[in-house]
Design goal:
Elements: H1 2-20, H2 34-43, E1 47-51, H3 55-67, E2 72-77, H4 78-84, H5 88-102, E3 109-116, H6 119-127, E4 132-135, H7 142-158, E5 162-167, E6 172-173, E7 178-179, H8 187-197, E8 201-204, H9 228-237, E9 243-245, H10 253-261, H11 274-281, E10 285-290, H12 292-308, H13 315-338
Parallel strand pairs: 1-2, 1-10, 2-3, 3-4, 4-5, 5-8, 8-9, 9-10
Antiparallel strand pairs: 6-7
Bound molecules: zinc ion.
């Protein structure tokens, strides 16, 4: 009896110890986004936030950013975290940082929760090694959004973790969010929101949207421009304050074409033109989120290999090339779209 109790206590202690072992992001070799954004603002570029949920994507993001000497925000949604496993995830990230250092790279790396929808989720992420979290209260009323965001900011700042808030609603479907309509951010609300919550950065809605189907275009119709007028007005009201763009994939036409050529069905998938993202990156936009483009790059290569080599069944033979394509895409984005390359 006593022996069993002792044994249980030891097991409990071990369990606790294993979980709490990686408590703070500094133990994982990560940084928060504060300095990253300061440098990005000064340098006129945006830090890339690439979403991932498995090892190959994480490897590709780390290698692509090491090779292009870019700071990087490793970004995980609540459901991606569940997919990768909340206990395993910090270890994966710690390993990715170690890999970057082994490659001789000093790049700054942050781990960020994308679209956190509750205080509990944000807290859980902070307690397990995230250096930055988003609380997306944009679907709530202004006052509720302020309340929710402020609670997370208070908890996060005590632990030197940075917080992203959101005002305005993006259309489209993402892991955690979906909306059929978009509501542009109201510039007249941003000062009060930032002041009342103390958030470190603000995601805004100026015409980007989630997913691979950002615009419904008629034949011959061009992609509408982002609302740079709204961005300008927000910059005027919050000088030097870091702005975030979600739903900012370009939906690379070559990858869409490759997917469709090899049996896929992505009709009329359209994204944000690279030139508009470049323009945004030169402004107060300090963080640009890219998820769909990474998914498309991997899927394109996997489809191609499955079609061309139907006898192949070693996952390394299709996930490897898919990872290679993702590395190429990430380097291209950092160098030519976000301008973050060589700003390690
Ligand atoms: Zn988003």
């Amino acid at each position: 009896m006593r022996r069993q109790r002792l044994l249980n206590a030891t097991l409990d202690f071990r369990k606790e110890h294993i979980v709490n072992n990686l408590k703070h992001y500094k133990d994982l070799g990560l940084v928060n986004t504060r300095e990253m954004f300061k440098k990005a603002m000064k340098g006129g570029y945006a830090v890339p936030a690439y979403n991932f949920n498995n090892m190959e994507q994480l490897q590709a993001i780390a290698i692509g950013c090491v090779e292009s000497k870019s700071p990087v925000i490793l970004q995980v949604s609540g459901s991606a975290r569940k997919y990768a496993d909340p206990t395993l995830l910090p270890h994966l990230v710690k390993g990715a940082v170690a890999m970057a250092r082994k490659m001789g790279s000093p790049i700054s790396i942050a781990l960020h929760l994308d679209h956190g929808d509750s205080f509990e989720l944000a807290k859980d992420c902070i307690d397990s090694g995230f250096s930055s979290v988003m609380l997306d209260g944009s679907h709530h009323s202004f006052d509720e959004n302020v309340m929710l965001t402020k609670a997370v900011v208070d908890y996060a700042h005590e632990r030197d973790v940075t917080v992203e808030g959101e005002l305005g609603v993006l259309a489209g479907v993402e892991d955690e969010v979906s909306s059929t309509v978009s509501h542009y951010t109201k510039p007249e609300e941003v000062e009060e929101f930032v002041e009342k919550t103390g958030v470190d950065s603000l995601a805004i809605s100026i015409g980007t949207s989630h997913g691979a189907y950002k615009f419904k275009l008629k034949p011959g119709e061009e992609v509408p421009s982002l609302r740079f007028d709204i961005l300008k007005e927000i910059e005027k009201r919050l000088p030097g304050y870091p702005i975030v763009l979600h739903g900012a994939s370009s939906v690379t036409p070559e990858h869409v074409a490759l997917i469709n050529r090899y049996g896929g069905k992505l009709e009329s998938a359209v994204g944000i033109p690279a030139e508009q993202l470049r323009q945004a990156a030169r402004s107060a936009v300090c963080k640009i989120n890219i998820d769909s483009d990474g998914r498309l790059a991997m899927t394109a290569l996997i489809r191609q290999i499955f079609a061309e080599k139907p006898a192949e069944f070693d996952p390394r033979k299709y996930l490897g090339p898919a990872r290679g394509e993702l590395i190429k895409m990430i380097k291209h984005k950092n160098i030519t779209v976000l301008g973050s390359a060589d700003h390690a």
